[in-house]
Amino acid sequence: MPGNASFDQIASTSLKKYRKTLSDNVFKRMAFFYKMMENGRKELESGGEKIVEPLTISANSTAGGYSGYQTIDVTPQEEISAAEYVWAQYASSIAISGRQERQNAGETQIIKLLEAKAQIAEKSLRREMDIDLFGSTLNAENKLNGLQSLIDTTSTVGGINRSSGDNAFWQANVSASVGSFATLGLNAMRTAYNNASDEGQDTPNFGVTTQSIFEFYEKSLQSQQRFQDNKVADGGFMTLKFKNMDLFWDSNVASGEMYMLNTDWLKLKVHKDADMETTEFVKPANQDAKVAQILWMGNLVILQPRRQAKLTGITA
Fold it and tell me: What is the mean pLDDT of the chain?
């Protein structure tokens, strides 16, 4: 870049180059999203009023054996429905005052200043999204769908009311008021894991809980049973194994809770034009400053709640 390049030219180029790093840092530094990325569960969308996901809601009743000229059932089937989710939006601003701009004149100084500002914005986004991930909000345009409500038996998710008798297929496995981990925890984990599995073929691969419950579980293991996925460990996460599932802990998981998730039946849907998109710097009319935004638009959607499990009320 020429030595006399303006602040706006340097800032625009630097932020665009930083965009990929920003996206990776936000999502790959949160255990759940790291696992989603590792399993290829992020999908870009081009638009739409809502995020629409087709669902298989029942088996095909025409399937069966036949002999010779026996008639074959050709009854029309309606196995496919759809869940609809609103777009959630997040933003974080990067503001540079005129004083800071003038004090950091020169390409190297401007880039250093922008990187420092972008890192603060990145950490702030990561914190807010992680808090919302383990919360209970659903169908809000400014919040991710929270796991507390996604992994449940009564909430309306994707426009489908789980409380309706016809929608039992849309209920997750919930073990409430588990009690003492020392006496009941391992049995509760086994049952929840098996309930969320398809006869052992389609099983949870990601577990997350609080630090204290993670430590209860760690204490219950013999030394030779403490296995850790090397790839996940290389990502900077401390994990333990439970059957085929990696178990993590996160400080934003609610007290007494543990999730057993099958990420094959979850998706992180992201709008292609707002995947940590960085805007140009704009000067407000009434301030000696310039401001740019980092924008994200998408949501977490669930495809098979019955392949997910949640335990609550776990105590020492």
Answer: 88
Q: Is the pLDDT score of 269 beyond 60? A: yes
Give me the half-sphere count of Cα atoms (radius 13 Å) on the Cβ side of residue 285.
0
Spatial contact of 287 and 135, defined as CB atoms under 8 Å apart: no
User: How do 309-311 and 173-175 pair as beta strands?
Assistant: parallel
C-alpha distances (whole Å) from 94 to each of 98, 114, 118, 122, 299 are 13, 8, 7, 10, 23
- Alpha carbon distance, N-terminus to C-terminus of the chain: 60
> E-assigned strands of the chain?
42-45, 51-56, 80-85, 88-97, 156-157, 160-161, 173-175, 179-180, 206-209, 240-242, 245-249, 258-261, 266-278, 289-302, 309-311, 314-315
- Residue 100, both tokens: 């800071």
Under 8 Å between Cβ of 130 and 34: no
Q: State how far the Cα of 43 lies from the Cα of 21, in Å rounded to an integer.
A: 18
Contacts of 252 (CB under 8 A, 6+ apart): 130, 131, 133, 134
CA 168 to chain centre: 24
pLDDT in tens, 207-233: 999 999 999 999 888 655 555 665 565
Q: How far, CA to CA in Å, does 213 sit from each of 28, 66, 148, 232, 249?
A: 23, 53, 17, 20, 8
Q: Do the strands 289-302 and 266-278 form a parallel or antiparallel pair, or are they unpaired?
A: antiparallel
What are residue 52's DSSP bridge partners? 84
What one-character DSSP code corresponds to residue 146? Answer: P
Whole-model pTM above 0.90? Answer: no
Structural contact between residues 194 and 201, judged by C-beta atoms closer than 8 angstroms? no
Amino acid letter, 260:
M
H/E stretch holding 232 reads helix 230-234
